[in-house]
Specification:
The chain is α+β, with helices and mostly antiparallel strands and 360 residues long. The chain folds into three domains: 116 residues, 2-Layer Sandwich (Beta-Lactamase); 85 residues, Orthogonal Bundle (Helix Hairpins); 155 residues, Heat Shock Protein 90. 42% of the residues lie in helices and 24% in strands. The strands form three sheets. A five-stranded antiparallel beta sheet has the order 2-1-5-4-3. A five-stranded mixed beta sheet has the order 7-9-10-12-11. The protein has a two-stranded antiparallel ribbon with strand order 6-8. The longest helix has 33 residues. It is elongated and about 100 Å long. 22% of the residues are buried.
């Protein structure tokens, strides 16, 4: 009796779900508390029907699981499965289920099973997969994207060494400008890779303080004035009725986010275009629009625009290079601040980024 009592205590206190169902009637013989817990209910809240818990299976997984269940009822061979369920509280979970037959006096008596909540394990697996893919992509960038500017620098310096005596100052300056552009791209690429890694690892802490957004945006616009002037692009900043608006932000990180947006706006706006930056003081949030008259973003590229290593990467209207990481970093920074970023764009008409930072 002591052993039976011990087993009963174990069965009633383990997190795994245990079930026994009679074959002839398909009625339950026993469900332990762990079984009900996995489905976010208890014995009183459980509604039994002939489908057992197939009604809880995720719609995308249900056809295959129903097919497997029918096969088990036909051949009574033990099966192990992993799939998703939607619990009574409408929560999605991953479960592992082992179902097997049990016999009494050499006759099939019931179907028994063990259920485990493996949601945490699945999340870890997905994160590890994402990290592995990210590292693979970083290695690809280091071996390809970083190699290209370094090869350009090497080739140009070799040409300068061989042809220096035959070149005038104008030609030498052109070579120096090309070398500078390649160095800048390599430097920006390494900086973006380091930022991406830090954000993914969660090593970047926010240093929040009250920030006047009007002043921050004015500094960002001023920073890009020379770059915009080279393409005769007008940058217009409007902060009417929002000059004194303050939000608790990490000024350095938010500046980096707006730098990325404005830098792209200049890259993808043709000569003599216009960029409008507007700050609005809404009831519960600060809203910033950055609108350009650029070449726009193809509709099929918008959904992946904020993804790391996005395939939406392309050269600017004057051949400017991009690392493909800036918008991903921007979104992560804004997400860190519990903010929002969205984009609207039409090809050959322009793009508008909208950023929101909430006051509380």
């Amino acid at each position: 009796m002591e052993i039976l009592h011990l087993i009963e205590n174990i069965v009633n206190h383990i997190d795994a779900g245990l079930f026994l169902r009679e074959v002839s009637t398909s009625k339950p013989i026993f469900y332990n508390p762990g079984f009900y817990k996995i489905f976010d209910t208890d014995e009183n809240g459980w509604q039994e029907d002939e489908s057992f818990f197939l009604n809880f299976v995720h719609p995308e997984d249900k056809p295959q699981i129903a097919k497997n269940h029918q096969k088990f009822l036909a051949d009574h061979i033990r099966k192990d499965e992993e799939y998703r369920i939607i619990t009574i509280k409408n929560k999605e979970k991953w479960i592992w289920v082992r179902t097997f037959p049990m016999y009494k006096d050499n006759e099939l008596y019931c179907h028994a099973g063990i259920i485990e909540d493996i949601t945490y394990r699945k999340v870890v697996e997905q994160n590890l997969t994402a990290i592995t893919q990210s590292k693979d992509e970083i290695l690809r960038i280091l071996s390809h994207d970083l190699r290209s500017p370094l090869q350009s620098i090497l080739g140009l310096t070799q040409l300068l060494e061989m042809e220096a005596s035959n070149l005038d100052n104008e030609n030498i300056n052109q070579y120096i400008q090309l070398i500078r552009e390649s160095c800048n791209f390599a430097n920006n690429l390494m900086a973006d890779l380091l930022d991406t890694h830090s954000l993914e690892e969660g090593n970047e802490e926010l240093h929040l303080s009250p920030v006047k957004l009007a002043g921050l945006l004015a500094e960002v616009c001023h920073m890009f004035k020379q770059q915009a002037n080279k393409k005769e692009i007008e940058i217009d900043l409007s902060t009417e009725n929002a000059e004194d608006l303050q939000i608790a932000l990490d000024a350095t990180k938010v500046t980096q986010a707006f730098n990325n947006i404005l830098s792209n706006a200049i890259k993808f706006t043709p000569q003599k275009g216009k960029i409008s930056v507007t700050l609005e003081d809404q009831t519960n949030y600060a809203q910033i629009h950055i609108e350009d008259t650029g070449i726009g973003i193809p509709e099929d590229k918008i959904p992946v625009l904020f993804d790391k290593f996005t395939k939406a990467r392309r050269a600017g209207t004057s051949g400017e290079k991009t690392t493909g990481l800036g918008m991903s970093i921007t979104k992560q920074i804004i997400d860190q601040h519990q903010g929002e970023i969205s984009v609207e764009s039409k090809v050959n008409e322009g793009t508008t980024f909208t950023v929101r930072f909430y006051k509380d």
